[in-house]
Every structure is written in structure tokens, then in C-alpha cells.
Amino acid sequence: MSMEFNYHLPVNLLFGVGKAELLGKETAKYGTKALLVTGQGSTKRTGLLDRALGLLTEAGVAARVFDKVTPNPITDTVTEGVAAAKAFGADVVVALGGGSIIDCAKAIAFAFFNEGDIFDYIYGRKTGERALPLIAVPTTCGTGSEGNCFAVLTDPTTGDKKSLRNMVSVPKASIIDPALMTTMPAPVAASVMFDALCHNMEAYLSRTIQPLVEMQALYGMRLLAEYIRPALRDHADLDAWSAVTLGSTLGGMCINTAGVAAPHGMEHPASGLKNIVHGRGLAALAPVIYRESVVYAPDKFGDISRILGGTGPADFTEQLNALLEDIGLKTTLSKEGITEADIDWMTENCLKVSAPAMAAHPKVFTKEEICELYYKAL
Ligand SMILES: [Zn+2]
Predict the structure, then answer these.
(1) Who's near 234: CB < 8 A, 6+ residues apart?
(2) Is the CB of residue 119 less than 8 Å from the CB of residue 136?
(3) In angstroms, what is the span from residue 115 Cα to ligand 1's centroid?
(4) What's the average model confidence in pLDDT over 39-66?
(5) Ligand 1 center–CA 281 separation, angstroms
(6) Which pLDDT value is given to residue 41?
């Protein structure tokens, strides 16, 4: 690992149980008219949306709710969100929800100033230098989107799922309240926390790792390895939820600098094509990919294995499978809706949308090997 690095991640993290109460005050620092981006589900059911609107009003911030975001957000929703923000005259964006919500809110804040096809920016054909300020309030502990600039979007016309990566999209502030995570249904919680663990593992294994990321990834993996099971067992255990939530934020921060590796690189084509749950796609792919990768980075896989409760590189996949078993996440791509007929498209698409992630993995797989891995994960 090189000791020469550049580390820049300008987000104010307000972390802790009860911090959600700061939403109004924090938002008022950046604007007076907020587009509040959320989904159709839990924020309404739990009363969180109403609470957030109350806090904004108290702080003198007018708000307009945009609740059209769906899981694996698509570019059309971003266009709709920008129109809503412009019609309202928004000068700040608040994201209240899980990773899809925060990603979509980032893209809305960015596309507010940067017109045209957002995939031109995603593929680097155009650049943007401005975005509306964003305040992120995550309600799931998985993507870590609150700690990075990534906005993963899917283009419904091509099936391409790829992240917009522009440092102007780093949230100004992220209010991370572990108490908000406790209302997730157990299967959702299991899949998002496995996603968080993957971010930390992939960053740790990445060829582009640097010292500050190594610190974050090691601590992130420890927190998740120790507390995923206790958090799932007891939704009232706020210490456990605080630990997994911090592990998730750290994972998001890690990948901002080190990027992801092969599991995410190969998962995006699957969820881009079939709209499957990201954490479940990772659960189907990660053990298969890692089984073929351990010999290329035995020291690092040994470290992760010990963190997961194992003894070294030899029992890494065993530990990973035991965790997936314990949290009810053992699955395959076919159980998630992928068929043999999809594999050629996914292989091509993986090389198209995930080239940097595949190149950062300890073993750089050939096209034939990627295809074979998809078959093994079926
Ligand atoms: Zn992820």
C-alpha cells in the first residue's frame, strides 16, 4: 500500500441516537426552501416524514415533498424530481430514506444545475461543477450513501446501472440517527447490512486502498461482524444498531476513496437488468467470487476471515457463508430471478459499467471467467 495519498471527503457527520431532531436547524444553514425527497413506504408509515416536516417548519424552512423514488432509482425519476425542485424554487435538498432515496436526491441536486442526459455525466462525457446543497438522513444502514458522493442510477432504456461520481454530490451534512434503523423489517435489515459489510471488504481488498481507508474499513468490518447478529436479534438494542450504523457509514466513506471491487462490479448488471435487491444480489455473488480470489490476496483475506471469526485465508469463505446462513441471506442468482439466458448480457454489461471495479479486485477476471462466475452463482 502506498503511503502517498490524497484524502478529501467534505461531509459534516452528525451521528448518534436522537440526532434526527437536528434536521431543521441543520437544513436552515443551507437554504430556506427544501425539496424533501423520500419514498412511498416506511417514512410515511412510521411518522418520520411528518416529524421531519415539523422540524423543518419550526426552523423556518419551507418544504415540498417529492415521494416518487423507487428502489434501484431510474433516471426518469431524477428528471421528475428536478422539475419539482425548480417549480418549488428549492435551494436545498433533504433526503429522508434508504440508499435509493439518498442516491436519487443526490442526482436531483446535481441535475438541477447540469442539464441533459445524466448518463453523459456518469460516463464522463460531460462534467458538472455545481449541485444544490444536500442534507442526508438515512433510514437504512447499508449503502453508506450519507458518507460519499456516489449516486447509483439505472437507465431504463439500456439497463445500465452505474454511479454518478462527482464530489459536488457529497452531502453537506448527514444526520445519522441509529434509532431510525430499528424499524427496518428483518430481511431488509439483513440485506442492507450485508451490503455495508461488502463495501468495507471490497475497499479493504481494493488495489487502490490507502491508509485512511484501511483504518476505516478494518473498523467498519469489525463493527459489522460483531453486531449484525445482535442487531437482528433485538431491534431495541441501540448499542448494536449504533455499531452497525457506524459500520455502514464507514463503508460508504471507504468506497468514495477506494471504490468497490468485483462483487459490486458483477452485482450491478444483475440488479440493473432484473431490479433485484442489491444486498441479495451481493449475497448470491460474493461467496462465489471470493472463493476464486482468496489465493490472490491471502493476507488480506486472512485478516477478514479472523474478523469474521475464522483463523485465516483457508476458512474465509466458510465464515462468510456461515454469516449469510445466520442472517437468512443464503441465496443464488436464480432464486433472485436471473436465468441462464441473462448471463451473456450481464457479462458484456459488467465489462461496460464496472471496468474500474473489476480492475481494482485482487484478481482481474477475464470475460470468460466473469461469465463462468455468473454460472456458478446461478
Ligand atoms: Zn452496495
Answers:
(1) 240
(2) no
(3) 27
(4) 94
(5) 10
(6) 82
| pLDDT value at residue 3 | 84
Task: Identify the weakest region by mean pLDDT among 1-10, 48-57, 109-118, 365-374.
Answer: 1-10
Instruction: Give strand ranges (E) for the chain.
Output: 12-15, 33-37, 62-66, 92-97, 134-138, 150-154, 161-165, 173-176
CA 352 to chain centre: 20
How far away, in angstroms, is 133 Cα from ligand 1 center? Answer: 23
All structural domains of the chain, each given as residue ranges with its CATH number in brackets, are: 12-180 (3.40.50.1970), 184-377 (1.20.1090.10)
How many angstroms separate the alpha carbon of residue 332 from the centre of ligand 1? Answer: 17
CA of 142 to the centre of ligand 1 (A): 7
Q: 5 — phi, psi (to 5°)?
A: -155, 165
pLDDT confidence of residue 333: 98
DSSP 281-325: HHHHHHHHHHHTTGGGSHHHHHHHHHHTT-SSGGGHHHHHHHHHH
Give the chain's mean pLDDT.
96
